[in-house]
Design brief:
Layout lengths: L1 H22 L3 H83 L5 H21 L2 E4 L11 E7 L8 E7 L1 E4 L2 E4 L1 E6 L1
Parallel strand pairs: 2-6
Antiparallel strand pairs: 1-4, 3-6, 4-5
Helix pairs in contact: 2-3
Length: 193
């Protein structure tokens, strides 16, 4: 019986040892468990960073799309405004010239008039044209005696004349016009010497 009791005691110790081994993991198992936890934690951090980066990317994409749409709207609005300004400026210029056109039509409707009356009428229309040009800031350029300037004159002929200085306009075939500093039409001139 003592042998049986020893055997039972041995079995009980073995069973207790097995339970202890199952309850307490070995050092290798603990390291594996810690590595798994560490990997899961690292994966969670990377996933969090990835989600933040995706959110930031979406935010920037939305901002880019809004900026592109705003620029497109600005471009279209600027184009419409430019066309409207051009149309308004053209209308203002035409309005100034309509009075001249009206007077020319009235002059042509006159059946019987003297040459002197016709001349007076043309002079009046010319004065009206000069007034319209003045309102539009259009100035004439190219007069006899002016020094030749290729920026505003178009020399179509050249003569030698000792009474005039060098590179001086001796005759104007067609007046030139400018608005401010912009040349609208170069003066067609003859240059002396």
């Amino acid at each position: 019986m003592a042998a049986e009791e020893e055997k039972k005691e041995q079995q009980a110790e073995n069973a207790a040892a097995e339970n202890t081994e199952q309850a307490e993991p070995s050092a290798g198992e603990e390291r594996e468990a810690e590595d798994t936890k560490s990997k899961k934690k690292a994966e969670a951090e990377w996933q969090k960073k990835l989600d933040e980066a995706a959110a930031e990317s979406q935010k920037l994409k939305d901002q880019l799309l809004r900026t592109a749409a705003e620029y497109d709207n600005f471009r279209k609005r600027s184009d419409r405004e430019k066309k409207a300004i051009y149309a308004d400026a053209t209308a203002d210029a035409v309005t100034e010239l309509l009075g001249v056109a009206d007077n020319l039509e009235r002059a042509l409707e006159q059946k019987e008039c003297t040459v002197e009356d016709l001349r007076k009428g043309v002079e009046m229309v010319m004065n009206q044209m000069h007034a319209a040009f003045a309102k539009l800031n259009v100035t004439e350029m190219g007069a006899v005696g002016d020094p030749f300037d290729p920026a505003i004159h178009n020399a179509v002929s050249h003569i030698d004349d000792e009474s005039l200085g060098e590179n001086v306009v001796s005759q104007v075939f067609q007046k030139g016009y400018r608005i401010g500093e912009k040349v609208v039409r170069h003066a067609m001139v003859q240059v002396a010497n």
